[in-house]
Amino acid sequence: MSIRCRPMRPKDVAGCVEIVAQHPFIGPRYAGTLPELRSVWLSLLGREAFRAYVYEDRQDSPPRLVGVGCSAMALHLRSCVRSRLGARSRHDLQRGGRCGTR
């Protein structure tokens, strides 16, 4: 077995979702959300706050996916807005105003 790690590409996503679905612990735990995983990963690929890698066995031709790893940074918008805007701007947002208006 010759394993290579590389960044996930859009063409890898379907196979990676299948790897997650077949995992004996993770698959059943997230079975209800697996149908959305493909579209979520596709929408996140290439974003600064998302890193996804595939592991493939290079002995097979073509190489066969054998694993996947992902990490993402998520922020809660409201707390981010509170830390960046002044009290008046927060009040405007709560009343439905636009971000950054005074």
Short synopsis of the structure:
The protein has 102 residues and is an alpha+beta fold. It contains 5 helices and 3 strands; from the N terminus they run βαααββαα. It has helices at 13-22, 26-29, 34-44, 77-84, 87-94; strands at 3-7, 50-57, 64-72.
Written description of the protein model:
- The chain has 102 residues and is α+β, with helices and mostly antiparallel strands.
- The chain has a domain at 3-72.
- 40% of the residues lie in helices and 22% in strands.
- It is built from five helices and three strands.
- Strands 1-2-3 form a three-stranded antiparallel sheet, with helices on one face.
- A hairpin with a 6-residue loop joins strand 2 and strand 3.
- The longest helix is centred in the middle third of the chain and has 11 residues, at 34-44.
- Mean pLDDT is 80; it is low at 85-93 and 97-102.
Order of helices and strands: EHHHEEHH
- Rounded Rg: 20 Å
Query: Portion of residues in helices?
Result: 40-55%
Shape category: globular
Order of strands, main sheet, comes to: 1-2-3
Outline the fold blueprint.
Elements (H helix, E strand, L loop, with lengths): L2 E5 L5 H10 L3 H4 L4 H11 L5 E8 L6 E9 L4 H8 L2 H8 L8
Antiparallel strand pairs: 1-2, 2-3
